[in-house]
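Supplementary notes for students who missed Thursday's class. We covered one full example, reproduced here. Read the sequence, then the structure, then the short commentary at the end.
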Amino acid sequence: VKNVGYGRHAWDIPLSVLISEESLKLSYLTVWLTTVANIFIKLTFFILYWSIFYPFRWLRYAILGGAAVVTGVYTGFLMYMLISDTPRPGQTWLEKAQEKRERGTSGG
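Structure (token representation):
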């Protein structure tokens, strides 16, 4: 982790380190794990709401619906990230990061 620039300020990290294969893989893993963690963090709030508002039947349905929506949206987002951000066979991590879609430019 220290070899790819973590622990230093962004302007102190050389560009050669930022675009290294190790750095790109670590960034990919960080985004993936953060998304998975966010699903569980948000679901814990729904569990808390369930324990507080259990006596209200209509609120139980709202809590279950909210938990289902959060799970569905984040699962869909995770699937999209895994499909779109993973390099294709024969493609390097740097080539994948340099695609127009990854840079945020319009394709036209």
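Commentary. The two ends are 37 Å apart (CA to CA). The mean pLDDT is 84. If anything here is unclear, bring it to office hours.
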